[in-house]
Amino acid sequence: MKRVAVLMGGWSAEREVSLSSGRESAAALKTRGYDVRVIDVTRDLGALMAALTPRPEIVFNALHGRGGEDGTIQGVLEFLQIPYTHSGVLASSIAMDKPMAKAVFARAGLPLAEGIVVPRESLGVADPLPAPFVVKPTNEGSSVGVRIVRPNDNSWPEEARGWAYSEALVERFIPGREITVAVMGDRALGVCEIRPRGSFYDYTAKYAEGGSEHLVPAPIHPTAYEQALAIGLGAHRALGCRGVSRSDLRYDDTAGEPGKLYLLEINTQPGMTPTSLVPDVARHAGIDFGELVHWMVENAACDP
Fold first, then answer.
1. 225: annotated active-site residue
2. Superfamily name and number for 95-111+175-298
3. Is 14 a catalytic residue?
4. What is the pLDDT of residues 181-207, one digit of tens each?
């Protein structure tokens, strides 16, 4: 029976999501016969070292956001030479830095929304792009801090002056539909369309029960579906990801189908909660949740 430590919690804005991912994954791994212990990770490195004693054979990394998804915890596990799920140090750190990831994607020829990085002090001075545009932190996940600014948005100037982050990634707003692609190893599992109950796919839509509707397979033109699969797998490979990843796209079909796809970002540690997307796509591909986490553990690794 393999000993697996599930890391969850952390100190990022996505702590609660991580706790949910960790609990679900740990429960599924126990049913698969693994010797599982869960570790609520904090900034106390000594406490983490103690919790990892006796040494597990594998770490299931259910952390999300800064500290757990940006190469930090991956570096600790590399130092300890404990195989872990998901991507390694370099892929994780690049993926979490949205402008850097966009630069890599551009070199790989993947379709992107036009965007610029703007320092906080410039946000409230003038619109960096013609409205509508999207403003997001450069290194957060789960749509934390994301704001769509539409024409004649009178509340934005004041919000811009109080922007909580040192800089912002500002991108042209792409009309159309929200699309996501799940990748498992070297295989794109499928494409899902997300229909949020609110105005856009924000944190609440992602994690609140009933916050969004997941349509698998995405009801889009077959040509666009195949293109989405290729983009998701291309993003995974461009960053050198391993394990499971999820790429988020916009599908502009406002002029008819097949429309145009734009890669927004890649998630190297997608959520594994009851409302998460990757488990939904995997189920459609014939892979239940227990099989999914089993595969992730059996394919855990350290960087070569």
1. no
2. ATP-grasp fold, B domain (3.30.470.20)
3. yes
4. 999 999 999 999 999 876 654 445 454
CATH superfamily of 115-172: ATP-grasp fold, A domain (3.30.1490.20)
* Whether residue 142 lies in the annotated active site: yes
Of 66, 147, 242, 246, the catalytic one is 246
**9, 10, 14, 24: which is the annotated catalytic residue?**
14
Q: What is the pLDDT of residues 149-164, one digit of tens each?
A: 999 888 888 888 888 8
SS in 3 state form for 29-63?
A: HHHCCCEEEEEEECCCHHHHHHHCCCCCCEEEECC
34 annotated active-site = no
Q: How far apart are CA 183 and CA 261, in angstroms?
A: 17
pTM of the model: 0.91
Contact 83, 301 (CB under 8 A): yes
70 catalytically annotated? no
Q: Based on the residue annotation, tell me whether 84 is a catalytic residue of this protein.
A: no
